Amino acid sequence: MRVLGLISGTSHDGIDAAVVDFIEEDGQLTGAVLAATSVPYAPALRARLIAALPPAQTTLAEVCELDTLIGQAFAEVAVEVATRAGGVDAVCSHGQTVYHWVDGAHALGTLQIGQPAWIAERVGAPVVSDIRIRDITAGGHGAPLVSFLDELLLRSHAGTAAALNLGGISNMTVVGPDGLIAYDIGPANALVDAVIVEHELNPLGYDDDAGIARTGAVDEPLLETLLADPYYALTPPKSTGKEHFHLGYVHEHLAAQGREIPVADLVRTLTELTVRTVARDVRAAGIGFLAVSGGGCRNPLILDGLRAALPGTEVVLADELGAPADSKEAILLALIGWCTLHGVPAIVPGGTGAREPRILGAITPGVGPLVLPAPMGGIAALTLTAASAS
Length: 390
Description:
Blueprint: E1 2-8, E2 14-25, E3 28-40, H1 43-52, H2 60-84, E4 90-103, E5 106-113, H3 116-123, E6 127-129, H4 133-137, H5 147-154, E7 161-166, E8 169-176, E9 179-187, H6 190-198, H7 220-227, H8 247-257, H9 263-285, E10 289-293, H10 300-309, E11 314-317, H11 328-341, H12 349-352, E12 362-364, E13 381-385
Parallel strand pairs: 1-4, 3-13, 4-6, 7-10, 10-11
Antiparallel strand pairs: 1-2, 2-3, 4-5, 6-12, 7-8, 8-9
Helix pairs in contact: 1-2, 2-3, 6-9, 7-9, 9-10
């Protein structure tokens, strides 16, 4: 079965897509990545999205319009990459997270927009969507869902291994002798991106190749106050998002300093915040192998900083696990879609905090009758190949 995975992450800068051809035999699942792409949002759409995100106030009218416009944008990308792959049997769309409702140590709700009916209409195939909320109803955080894929890819590693994703928020899956645990660590690119956009430092909306951070210096007093955020002391599993780590959060910390901090120093300090928070948790878990993905893995100050801070840990890109670092989350979505259509739960309780595994998502039929495959018991092993990815 060929499944197209679609996602826009917490950096909300565009749409990642990957088509994976899954073949199952006796519980052994292989997935060949046939095509992958990343398409930026149109500037006007991204600007409207950013303007509607917390802590900003918005209207139901704006939510409805963004739901439609993002759904149409996803559909355009879906048609292009599905055609390039020679067609698909199904789609799984994460959509765009606009709010993740967390109260203390509990996730109470989550909202992703990007109406899947637009994708189903354009591609003609059934679309699995709204995948996070089922985990929350079972007591989980709805994040990080990538722990399901990480466990399959890391289970053969000896000792304690982990997969780190550096999107807007950093999250990590740890697999070791005592089982699996996964959680959101804190901000990865979210705060840096917010400052870049506010000061119009880069039209891309992020610190390309750490070009801005390289010109600044770490402001240790500011960094100390950032590291004191109570979120970091919470016990996993835990989740967070831009409801907590946003531009206003940066402004509050700057105001508390009572002094001027150059913008380049601010960007450098926020970059170092990611390095320090991730390295601290990696050391605490005794991780010997760390596979990194997400946009932050292309920031040399972050990746080199992690390697310098973790001399006893092998730090590699997720490509070494068969999941290209730039398209890993889209591959995850394809896997979740395959699992939902085959009746297979796609969460690991230790990864999200859910009481039990659950089958995720809702299904929007394609242009024809909805015909589901026979349900399966589960996945014993997964092998990914990306040799033919384009």
